[in-house]
């Protein structure tokens, strides 16, 4: 044990822990904020695959805390576990940033990686290391901070945990704001692309800082030795009870009041009683994963939904992944409102709003959030263009001639195309071969930018560029531009002219340079603009109601659920309940993965309705389970066993005296019998 240094009655060591937690949470949530867009627009995976891999990663992040707690309590101790797994964590973040470097395998420098499997492999390795690191240290850091206080420092310890969880929300809020801005920049060695390396690199740097800060306080920490993990005791006791019951399944063995009573041959009755209380709570956990199934889709489905919306708020432009910041902002707002206003008001109205009733309401609010998301999706679908299916291809016909042309493409009907006009038609493919449709390449960029292509009708070559970027426009290829007003310059090497256009989110345009173009002011207003795809018109503000409902559901469900769980279980079993709670989050994310890969609903709004319906059904089941649940006082139950233990020595002594008297009388009878014989 190290000598403790204090400042203002607080251990100095906790300041290192608080800074460490802030940096680590910034690193995790910053990386996670842009993750689904990285899958969708860098790897060019479809929405379902991007969603599945995202939720598989989140599920793994909530499974590894169990492993971290066992390693820390049974083997390495909290300090070494945090150090070792933080190193793994930092390496994972660095590998993730490297995987996003576009030029890593772009040998021909065309802006597209030549070997995407290398990038995917690095990303999957990085995500595995991150999940192992962030999950492994999750149960250790807060507990390690609590170890720094003496028993009499209850007020200081309480303040520490408040600041600790404030740092979690602060890191989450700031990173979710900052990393999407970094992602929106353009960077690269040979070609300029969306800057995912920077978006992942900054979280990686913060994780390295987190590790350095934590190590810097090493000499001031109180490092408690491993004392064994209660979860292992619980698992061993349950395993022994099941095995013993199976070995004595014959009807000749008397039944016992509870199946856990089969463990009383080896384990203390108090431990068995404590595990019984925990099992009652864990039974209520069975329906809970469905809530997390909906809740964690904020970072996947809802972010992808935002890519098809308009993020302009006056002079402020929000990136699709920045909408996630609404959640931590609302949490910081709603928690005190619920505690100080809503719950007291309900109590004054005479309504018994028990914890389980609150959790039921939380589930219902989450279901309503997805109904709201479905309504927004229906509005979005009405504005989206019709892209070619897998058996179709899209053909763009451009007439740069000076007169009208008659076009015939069997089996289409003949049509006339005027001078300097564009026509899009859908053509069926022979033998139903999959097509690399325009939507695949376009959607990989345009959802957070606009796309434009220039068709040159002049007899000589010209160079195209736009202000703020020296990039030359390749012939007959789409170039993706940030939202806002852009000034274009056309030059033939001697003369030049400029014109400006304003772009929204998700639009696509074809600019025709006519043969009569004069390189004069504003290019003589001769540039013909054709709108291939209209920009997004449904505003991101319409997502605020669904974010409000899901966050209100989180506050009512999650905070209340943990409080209820802790109140219904013994103090030494809180780690077991924490593991059970995290396990429900993991299962919930696995459900998203299964539905995304198997359901394959043609319309996204239908999937939202499906999830909402499933949660409503689970909500009804949970309310029935809650109705039959009887609240207990764990301290009182433990006290009963304590009193029994105190009485046992007296009872044993009494039983021993009675047994000795019985043996003495039996001995006298035997002696008397021998005398008579």
UniProtKB/TrEMBL annotation:
InterPro entries: MFS_trans_sf, POT_fam, PTR2_symporter_CS. The chain crosses the membrane at residues 26-43, 49-70, 82-101, 116-137, 158-178, 198-222, 277-295, 358-378, 575-596, 608-629. GO terms for cellular component: apical plasma membrane. It is a multi-pass membrane protein. It is found in: Apical cell membrane; Cell membrane; Membrane. It catalyses: L-phenylalanyl-L-leucine(out) + H(+)(out) = L-phenylalanyl-L-leucine(in) + H(+)(in); L-methionyl-L-phenylalanyl-L-methionine(out) + H(+)(out) = L-methionyl-L-phenylalanyl-L-methionine(in) + H(+)(in); L-alanyl-L-valine(out) + H(+)(out) = L-alanyl-L-valine(in) + H(+)(in); L-leucyl-L-proline(out) + H(+)(out) = L-leucyl-L-proline(in) + H(+)(in). Residues 643-677 are annotated as: Disordered. Pfam families: PTR2. One of its GO terms (biological process) is protein transport. GO terms for molecular function: symporter activity. Keywords: Cell membrane, Glycoprotein, Membrane, Peptide transport, Protein transport, Symport, Transmembrane, Transmembrane helix, Transport. CDD domains: MFS_SLC15A1. Signal peptide: none annotated. Electrogenic proton-coupled amino-acid transporter that transports oligopeptides of 2 to 4 amino acids with a preference for dipeptides. Transports neutral and monovalently charged peptides with a proton to peptide stoichiometry of 1:1 or 2:1. Primarily responsible for the absorption of dietary di- and tripeptides from the small intestinal lumen. Mediates transepithelial transport of muramyl and N-formylated bacterial dipeptides contributing to recognition of pathogenic bacteria by the mucosal immune system. Belongs to the major facilitator superfamily. Proton-dependent oligopeptide transporter (POT/PTR) (TC 2.A.17) family. This is Solute carrier family 15 member 1.
């Amino acid at each position: 044990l190290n000598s403790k240094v204090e400042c203002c009655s607080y251990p100095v060591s906790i300041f290192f822990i608080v800074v460490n937690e802030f940096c680590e949470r910034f690193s995790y949530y910053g990386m996670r904020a842009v993750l689904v867009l990285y899958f969708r627009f860098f790897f060019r995976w479809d929405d379902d695959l991007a969603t599945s891999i995202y939720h598989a990663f989140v599920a793994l992040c909530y499974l590894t805390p169990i492993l971290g707690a066992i390693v820390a309590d049974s083997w390495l101790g909290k300090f070494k576990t945090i150090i070792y797994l933080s190193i793994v964590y930092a390496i994972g973040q660095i590998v993730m940033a490297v995987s996003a470097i576009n030029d890593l395998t772009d040998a021909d420098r065309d802006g597209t990686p030549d070997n995407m499997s290398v990038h995917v492999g690095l990303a999957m390795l990085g995500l595995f290391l991150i999940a192992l690191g962030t999950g492994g240290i999750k149960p250790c850091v807060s507990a390690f901070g609590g170890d720094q206080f003496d028993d009499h420092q209850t007020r200081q310890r309480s303040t520490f945990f408040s600041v600790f969880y404030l740092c979690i929300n602060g890191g989450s809020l700031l990173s979710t704001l900052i990393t999407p801005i970094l992602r929106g920049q353009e960077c690269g060695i040979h070609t300029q692309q969306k800057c995912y390396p920077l978006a992942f690199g900054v979280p990686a740097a913060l994780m390295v800082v987190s590790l350095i800060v934590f190590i810097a306080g090493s000499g001031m920490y109180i490092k408690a030795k491993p004392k064994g993990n209660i979860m292992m005791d619980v698992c061993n006791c349950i395993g022994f009870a099941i095995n013993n019951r199976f070995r004595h399944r014959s009807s000749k063995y008397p039944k016992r009041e509870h199946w856990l009573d089969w463990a009383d041959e080896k384990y203390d009755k108090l431990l068995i009683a404590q595990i019984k209380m925990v099992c009652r709570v864990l039974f209520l956990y069975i329906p809970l994963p469905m809530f997390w199934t909906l809740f964690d889709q904020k970072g996947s489905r809802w972010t992808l939904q935002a890519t098809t919306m308009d993020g302009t708020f006056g002079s402020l432009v929000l990136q699709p992944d920045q909408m996630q910041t609404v959640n931590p902002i609302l949490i910081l707002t709603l928690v005190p409102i619920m505690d100080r206003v809503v719950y007291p008001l309900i109590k004054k109205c005479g309504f018994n709003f028990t914890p389980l009733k609150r959790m039921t309401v939380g589930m219902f609010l989450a279901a309503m959030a997805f109904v709201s998301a479905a309504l927004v999706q229906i509005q979005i679908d009405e504005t989206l263009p019709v892209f070619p299916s897998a058996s179709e291809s899209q053909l763009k016909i451009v007439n740069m001639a000076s007169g009208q042309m008659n076009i015939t493409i069997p089996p289409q009907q003949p049509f006339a195309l005027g001078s300097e006009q564009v026509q899009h038609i859908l053509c069926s493919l022979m033998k139903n071969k999959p097509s690399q449709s325009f939507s695949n390449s376009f959607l990989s960029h345009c959802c957070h930018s606009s796309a434009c292509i220039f068709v040159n009708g002049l007899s000589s070559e010209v160079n195209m560029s736009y202000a703020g970027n020296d990039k030359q426009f390749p012939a007959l290829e789409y170039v993706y531009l940030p939202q806002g007003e852009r000034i274009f310059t056309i030059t033939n090497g001697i003369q030049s002219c400029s014109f400006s256009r304003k772009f929204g989110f998700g639009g696509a345009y074809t600019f025709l340079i006519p043969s009569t173009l004069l390189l004069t002011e504003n290019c003589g207003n001769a540039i013909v603009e054709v709108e291939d795809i209209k920009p997004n018109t449904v505003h991101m503000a319409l997502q605020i109601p669904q974010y409000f409902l899901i966050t209100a559901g989180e506050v009512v469900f999650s905070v209340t659920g943990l409080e209820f769980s802790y109140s219904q279980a013994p103090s030494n079993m809180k780690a077991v309940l924490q593991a059970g709670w995290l396990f429900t989050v993991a299962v919930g994310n696995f459900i998203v993965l299964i539905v995304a890969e198997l359901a394959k609903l043609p319309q996204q709004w239908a999937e939202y309705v499906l999830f909402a319906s499933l949660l409503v059904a689970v909500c009804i089941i949970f309310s029935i389970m809650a109705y039959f649940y009887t609240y207990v006082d764990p301290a009182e139950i433990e006290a009963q066993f304590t009193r029994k233990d105190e009485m046992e020595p007296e009872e044993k002594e009494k039983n021993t005296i009675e047994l000795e008297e019985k043996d003495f009388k039996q001995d006298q009878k035997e002696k008397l019998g021998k005398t008579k014989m």
